[in-house]
Amino acid sequence: MAKLLIRDLAGVVSPAGTHAPLRGPAGMSKLDAYEDAYVLCEDGRLSAVGRMSDLGALDGDVEELDGRGRSVVPGLVDCHTHACFAGDRADEFSRRAAGATYEELHAAGGGILSTVGATRAAGEEGLAVALARHRAWMLAAGTTTFEAKSGYGLDRDTELAQLRVIREAGGIPTWLGAHAVPPEFPDADAYLDFALEEVLPEAARLAEAADVFLERSAFDAAHARRYLVACRDAGLSLRLHADQFTEGGGIQLAIELGARSVDHLEATGPEGVQALARSDVAAVLLPVAAVFLGRPMPPGHDLLEAGAIVALATDFNPGSAFCERLPVAMTLACTQMGLGPVAALAACTVNAAHVLGRADRVGRIAPGYDADLVLLDTRDWRHLAYHFAGDIVAAVIKDGVVAWTR
Ligand code: NIG
Ligand code: FE
Question: Which of 67, 148, 196, 356 pairs as cysteine with 171 (C-beta 3.0–4.6 A)?
């Protein structure tokens, strides 16, 4: 494989060091930064980074990219998406604008269940086409590693098809087998009987983690415990959607079961913040979903100050967060939650990679890591968060190859 050299860069920045996860204001505010710099990729890995003045002669085929006036950050890691869906919810979006709430629409059989209908109807090929389109959007916004959840099938065939399609698209699959109770089951327990008996054995072979929507309109803490314990016993790591609308005991359950993360937290109070800070469960913040549904922001600043593991993701989905752009989540983290750009960058690189169990491979610019990079059309990388929804990604490099260019 040829070498790729990005040369004459105004700046290269990466969360400092090699340790993961990062926590606390001090831990999340350090960068390894170079000015007038280069990055060299070889065989899909980063082989060197440094100042131009230290770049020696290179032998063999070398493809060069001009970095003048530009900066580079690590490829972004989106650790929470629902990108494998068919159809859209533009009607629901309009009804919410006229006053209907997300929870009301869900209770009336719309919301998640309307995407379940479209996803079941799409078939595996249709889903692959939809995910390829969404994947291209994410890549153009700088995401080089993404997780995606099932949860829009809620029957055996469609759940497993979602997991296969996510894998084949290069995503990291999470089995969200407990997202909603589909209409063919009388209650959550009857649905879980089916899901754990009929779907889990194969889902555990395809997915890396399991996830549950713990909320008054979906699954309660007892259901969530039953589902997560069975998934853990089948070898999956655990994630939870919790405290989105109400505090329902998700944080305590996540800590007790040793979950990787608890995600959303818009309704989390001071006790939840302190409990997370004392634990190794990551807090995955989804500020786009909070804005999109007109909900309060999660207590990002308090979590950071208290020393919790803070990660940032899009929650990209057709209902609560129709947005695939991590830089928008970074802007919201800075303007609405009191994170600085450096902490926001760490939250969607190193710490997001930690949530996905890949912090030794992605999320940093240092020799040995995967050659995943975002080239920005700005000398000051902070424009990634500062330029709200700005079109500043010049190129995206995945595994040492230019995967997207403007
Ligand atoms: O993370 N809240 C539950 N699940 C998703 C939304 C899914 C949907 O509305 O389709 C979320 O917000
Ligand atoms: Fe979600």
Answer: 148
Please list all protein residues whose beta carbon sits less than 5 angstroms from ligand 2, which is an ion: 315
Asked if residue 131 and residue 37 are part of one domain, the reply reads no
Residue 340 belongs to a domain: no
The pLDDT, as a whole number, for residue 64 is 96
Ligand 1 contact via 145 beta carbon (within 6 Å): no
Domain region containing 57? 3-74+363-405
Number of structural domains the chain divides into: 2
Please identify, by atom number, the ligand 1 atom nearest to the C-alpha of residue 102. 9
CA dihedral 36, 41, 45, 46 (to 10 degrees): -20
Report how far ligand 2's centroid is from the alpha carbon of 403 (Å): 27
Residue 393 phi, psi dihedral angles, 5° rounding: -80, 120
Q: Are residues 158 and 304 in the same domain?
A: yes
Per residue in 370-389, pLDDT (tens digit) is 999 999 999 999 999 999 99
Ligand 2 centre distance from Cα of residue 241 (Å): 6
Give 103 Cα–ligand 1 centroid separation in angstroms: 11
Ligand 2 centre to CA of 290 (Å) is 11
- Determine the average pLDDT of the residues in 103-131: 95
pLDDT digits (tens, 9 = 90+) for 45-95: 999 999 999 999 999 999 999 999 999 999 999 999 999 999 999 999 999
Cα-to-centroid distance, 180 and ligand 1 (Å): 10
Check if 376 has its Cβ closer than 6 Å to any atom of ligand 1.
no
Q: Does the beta carbon of 174 sit less than 6 angstroms from any atom of ligand 1?
A: no
pLDDT of 1 strictly over 80? no
Please, which residues have CB within 8 angstroms of residue 77's CB and are 6 or more apart in sequence? 143, 144, 145, 146, 348, 349, 352, 353, 356, 358, 362, 363
Q: H/E element holding 253?
A: helix 250-257
* Separation of alpha carbons 272 and 143, rounded Å: 30
34 in a structural domain = yes
What percentage of the chain reaches a pLDDT higher than 90?
98
> Is the CB of 289 inside a 6 Å radius of any atom of ligand 1?
yes
Q: What is the pLDDT of residue 332?
A: 98
